[in-house]
Amino acid sequence: MSSRTLNHIVRGFKAMLVARAIYMGSSAVLMVVLARFLLDPDGYGTLFWAIGVLSVVQLIAGGGLGKSAARYLAEYREKAPGQIPRVLELTVAVQVLCIAVVSVILLFGHDRIAAVLGDGAVAPFLAAGAVYVLAMSFHGLAIITFQGFNMLGYSAAVQAIGGVSRLLFAVAFVVAGFGALGAFFGYVVGYAIAAVFGITVLYLQCYRAFERASSFEPGLPRRVLEYSVPLTATRGANVIDKQIDIVLVGFFLNPVAVAFYTLAKQVVDFVLAPADSLGFTISPNFGEQKAAGDIEYARTLYETALTNTLLLYVPAAVGLAIVAEPFVTLVFGGDYAGAIPVLQVLCVFVVLQAITNLTSDSLDYLGRARARAMAKGGTALANFGLNVVLIPTIGVVGAAIATVATHSIYVGVNLYVVHAELSLCLEELAATVGKIVAITGVMGLLVVVLAPFISSLGMLFASIAVGVAVWAGLAFASGLIDPQDVRTVLGSGSDV
């Protein structure tokens, strides 16, 4: 790997990691403030049930168009830069049309949708969902489009601005007396501010930077739209995986159960932020290197990222499962104790999703979106079916079990496709995983011994610190972490 490429990846990773830290930090503060101080479990559950429903509805508003455009933007930056403005124009035009369709459905059909869901309390959330979908769609489009230009600093900025703005306005509106609906409008305003920033910068720094071609390259609009189809299917399946379980928990159970499930998933999302940042950062490089014919580089990059991801997340998942009970009750309060078993089951999902975050975007840039879409679609349908069976029979934990079971299959398929593309060194990977499991076992035993003594936040954080120290010591001692590599990475891209 060239030093220039390494510096570029590290700079992008640092920018995304800082942005994710800001976004997830603001999300964590918002989660704690809403759950512990401002909303009861019923209000908290209603808020996120409505957001879950709208996330499913939002699929109509663009689907995988943004990611398809990002792929062609990355390809045509050097190949035919005059096509860049035209691809952007096409993307925005189709996006606006789709948003208009969704907005009309929500504005005129919110009461009927709420009646079908069996809870009239979500009707005002659905009516306001028209502006939520508008803000979220352009917020997401800006982030993905900047990724296509490999301008990850701007992607990071949009994400960070959205997180901080959402925190400020959601808390302000709830404190002003608007309750869960006020928190919802805080989400809308926060994402709208970030979207305006992102689209403005995109126009000034990207659209105007290229001389617009007199016409589209023959077949290019068709290719952009066609490639968005499997990406839309993948995104749809991903939304079903991430949101339909929340919708079904609310449908079969109640908003309080939604609060327990949502809280556990939000904790998991917070833990997964670094893996998400790494996957987002390195994925454009796979497309570039495949186009250049440098498969060896792409394989080395993926294997290094995968082993480092597992080294971080296997121990983290085990540790979180062990301290889940004191963590939930001490941070969020005893009212949310029902989230504890859900969080413990979802700790398995932490490892699976960490691999997915690293792999999924990479497959899209390798041109294997169709294979990923088929796998995602199949497992999403299986997840839906398992949720329908398990939630009514064993409650909210059933949703977590369904998520873990189906996502295990999806990860297996993803890894198989990556191996088919890059010919991974399986024996070396297996040996490394064995070392990681051994390190996790030693660390886990120590945390099990400490867990019964956790009675305060200070003891909780002290126990976590001890576990991290043991993990770090064993990782260095086993050679899985090279001190020289750490110094190199910390020194690379220090100008960020």
Automatic annotation (TrEMBL):
Keyword annotations of the record: Cell membrane, Membrane, Transmembrane, Transmembrane helix
Transmembrane segments: 21-39, 45-66, 87-109, 121-144, 156-178, 184-204, 310-332, 338-359, 380-402, 433-454, 460-481
Keyword Lyase: no
Membrane-topology descriptor: Multi-pass membrane protein
CDD domains per the UniProt record, alphabetical: MATE_Wzx_like
One annotated Gene Ontology cellular component of this protein: plasma membrane
Subcellular location: Cell membrane
Main location group: membrane
Name used for this protein in its record: Flippase
